[in-house]
Amino acid sequence: MEAADLCAGLFPSVVAWCRARQFQDNQTEARRKKRRLQLLAARRLRLRKLQGTWMRRGKVCKQSRLHRLCAHEKWMTAITHHFLRDRMRRRPKVWLYPRTSDWWENTASAFTDDQWLQHFRVSRETFSHLCMMLKPQLKRQDTTYRLCIPLQKRVALTLYKLAYPCDYKTVAELFAVGVASVCRCVHEFCTAVIEVLKPQLVVTPNDSELVKIADFFLHSYGIPQCIGVLDTMQITVIKPPHYQSEPPNRESYLAILLQAVVDGNGMFWDLSTSCPTWVNDSCGLQESWACEGFTIRMLNVCGTDSGRFILGDEGYPSQHWLLKPCTNTSWMTAEQEVFNSQISQAHSVAQHAFERLTGRWRCLNKRNDCSVEIVKDMVETCCVLHNLCEKNKDMFLPEWISREPPPTANGKS
């Protein structure tokens, strides 16, 4: 009983102590929470003050920077004003030379078909065909600074340059363009013709075409299995600066040899051009080919068992596919004389083709002042255009053939 009474007396005191302890803990936690809130409030206040300080500083910096920019702009405006004022006092430089293109735009556009043929050596239909075929390679676009040369004008000035033995300056003044532009147009036109039209117009005949050519020479001149006539002409050029070779004598001149095989219709089906060599009118043709690949091409066409051959002059090297006339001696028989006569008559096909070539494109008649590579391209271009005109049946005027045609490499006119 005493123990129970003791426990009953201690229980209220323990409960009271626990309640007092819990109350103290609650007050301590409340003070801690209040302190934390005060610290957060102080921190927010400091942040707001610091943000305001930075905003004021940024505003001051922006204002000072704006003042500096305004001052700099005023300074640059003043400098530009004085610079332009000084420039306006000077006479402006002329960067575009004034030219008049009245001949091409008015005179040439009003040409009749005969006048057009006389000036450009091709018909209007052939001219349109050239422009259409070469448009991807020759078409140019206008720029912000100047207009490009139209396609028709580029083709026309190149044909005029090839048709007449004139210099670049004459063509430039006639078509109202620069000399450098004429040179560039001629070079680009020749390159485009060689890349696009030459594979179509100057090709080795197939078997059926070779049979037709052989039949033509058989019925016309009595020569069987003849598929072409070989001839060579000279194109005189100036001596290149890097050319070290000297002329063997005072009568020699530098020339490029054009070697071509002509079919019965007077069209070229094989072309070869040589490097510049010294030639002399008083000497005969040297026994050499214009290029090393010519004999290989002829072997592929004629072969060893086909029996076909081409006609050549006595100056060419002897080959089993090349038929040459007999040597002109006093011991020739009647059959040999008839044979030589037949070959001479058949050789007129090549002479006639070269006459029409040089008559239509007169740039081949006189010495060409262009570089050697451009001259070679011009020669091949003239041959390709010759085939195109012959294929399209363009008219050839007799007055185009000069009275003194250029000498060929074999000594004939």
Largest sheet: 6 strands, mixed
Radius of gyration: 47 Å
User: What would the principal axes of the Cα set say about the shape?
Assistant: elongated
Determine the number of helices (DSSP H or I, runs of at least 4 residues): 11
Kindly describe this structure:
The chain is α/β, with parallel strands linked by helices and 413 residues long. It has two domains: 102-198; 204-400, no CATH class. The chain has eleven helices and six strands. Strands 1, 2, 3, 4, 5 and 6 form a six-stranded mixed sheet that branches. A hairpin with a 5-residue loop joins strand 2 and strand 3. It is elongated and about 175 Å long. The N and C termini lie far apart (163 Å). Residues 231-387 form the DDE Tnp4 domain. Keywords: Hydrolase, Metal-binding, Nuclease, Nucleus. It is found in: Nucleus.
